[in-house]
Amino acid sequence: MATEVTPKKPPDWKNLTDTVQDAESLRQESINAHHDHLITEIETSDGPLGTSLRAVYEGDELEKFKESLSDHIKNHDKEIERMCNYHYQGFIDSIRELLKVSCDAAQLKDEISDVNSHLQDSCEPLLTKGEELVKCRRVQRNIASAVENLTLCLPVLEMYGKLQEQMSSKRYYPALKTLEQLEHTYLPRVETHWFSQTMKEAIPKLRERIKDASMSDLKDFLESIRNFSARIGEIAMKHAAEQNNMDPAVAQSNKKLKTKRAPKPPNPFTGEIEKEGTEKSVIADSAADDMGELSAQDLIDFSPVYRCLHIYTVLGDREKFETYYRKQRRKQARLSLQPPSNMHESIENFKRYFHDIVGFFVVEDHILSTTQGLVNRAYMDELWEMSVSKLAASLRTSAALCKESEMMLDIKKLIVLFCHTLRGYGFSVGHLLELLLEMRDQYSDILTRQWVDIFNEIFNEDNYTPIYVESVEEYTAIVTQFPFQDEELEQASLPRNEETFPKRFPFSLFVPNIYTQVKAYINACLKFSADLHLSHTEIDDMIRKSTNLLLTRTLGSCLSSLIKRRDLTLLQLIQIAINMNYLEKSCSYLEEYISSITGAQSDSVHMARLHGTSMFKDSRSDAEEHIYSKLNTKISEFIELANYDWSLPESKGHASGYITDLVAFLQSTFMSFTNLPVSDMSLFGFNYHYHF
After folding, report:
1. Could you tell me which residue, 333 or 282, shows the higher pLDDT?
2. What letter does residue 267 receive in the DSSP assignment?
3. CA distances from 416 to 282, 346, 398, 482, 528 (A)
4. Which pick of 284, 384, 630, 691 has the fewest CB atoms within 10 Å?
5. What residues does the Exocyst complex subunit EXOC6/Sec15 C-terminal domain cover (predicted)?
6. What is the distance between the terminal CA atoms of the chain, rounded to a whole angstrom?
7. Which architecture, in CATH terms, is 449-466+506-691?
């Protein structure tokens, strides 16, 4: 077996040297590769070289990089030299050809210059025409643009001109419509033009101008309506008088006023006014026959109200307008309800006062019926309630200052007509009718004061002697005044017995006069009770109460004062007592008369009876007491005047002259008692004997 030979290993230091040499070689290759990369990056990069240069200087191989860079430059130079050597012969050939072409190019340039000169000379007119054509085309384009823009702008300007014309003619609602069209339809078409912006900025100001102008017209309307309210009220009350069968003169003022018929109001939406004949613009006197045909709309142009309402509605301020209108009208209502300080002095003052109030509510009713929501029924009722309370207070105050019954009666007629008028417009007048019942008591008081003077005048003018009539006519005149029945006088009044005149009535003239005046008082009371919507029974009861007050208080007081007069003679007192007897009997006729004029049933159990019978009895008793007193005084005077000789031994056989005179006086006095009741005559005789 052969022995295996083991190879001999090199020493370890030799291996280490080889390893170091390999590492150094690798490092050198890495550096060279890095330098090549940097040089390539520098050559190919179009951007900044700061990063590459920083990488070169950061290492310790700057010298080696320079060497590598020099090697690259040398390589490139060699490559350029090689390329130039390769293309040198071609370059020489190209230069030679270029020199040949240079001569041809110069000749061609000269020919081109000549052709260009000829072309410029030939085209100069064409260029001129072309420039002119360009200018014309530019002008044509500008004209077309101007026409197009004018086509857009003219409607806008026309609408603006229309707006200005409408505002100058005070057609504000159409102007507002035109403004809306201008803002939303026309101006958007010309937004590119500078004037559109100016117009847009002016639109809010124009709206405010329209609002202010319409409000100014409304204020003028509210001011003028105050002047026409009285006239409107007069016409309305006259219509109501005709409809309720009342005298139209109650409402008609004696003051002559000229009334101009208002022009036909313009259409509030178009602002146009329909043409009318001149006959509709006449001036009518208050007494003209056609005054009754006029209405509130004929006298007042309401277009400012309608126009302002529509304008504020469109602009969204309707509520503000309604508030302003109602506030102003409330102020005017308070002014109308404020009576003049001298209203009680003349019925004309009352008429104007009522006319003004009626005119106010007629206008408001017209506004209520011709507008939607400007005024409503609740507002009207509130205004009416306020007015009724103030009106009632004013009438109470003014009526309390009146001293004449005729004026009170005229005031009552005015109030009744006022109630009829406003009831026709839907207003409640119950409080005013209650006021009339209060005024009726005042009217009765005024009548009572007047009748005091009438009764006293009758008493002063009477001669207190029986009435003598000379003919049938005089007799008829007396029995027509006073219900007196006497068979002897009735027989004497027959035609065949005319020769029996003169005849005598048992009473004096103040009996028929008093009876006539009491009937006149009853008639005066009835006048005030008319048209108060009272039943026959209520009227009858009111008149009977007033008549009782007249008889018991007024006439009774006057009779009491008459009987107490010291200048009355005994015969006059006797005649007064006789007169009381006949006036007492006439009370039943007065009751029948009241029933006949009131239409109430005379046998009603609820009917009040007249107290005149007891009053006349009391007055007659008072007169009899004064007769007793005067008669006793006269008898005492006769006896005191007697002068007797008390020392005569015997009687002379006949009555003394004093006794004879006393008997003659008593005989003539008792002859005046023949028209008194027998019981009264007996009392007088008993009293005479007792006193004697």
Report:
1. 333
2. P
3. 32, 18, 17, 35, 10
4. 691
5. 432-687
6. 229
7. Orthogonal Bundle (1.10)
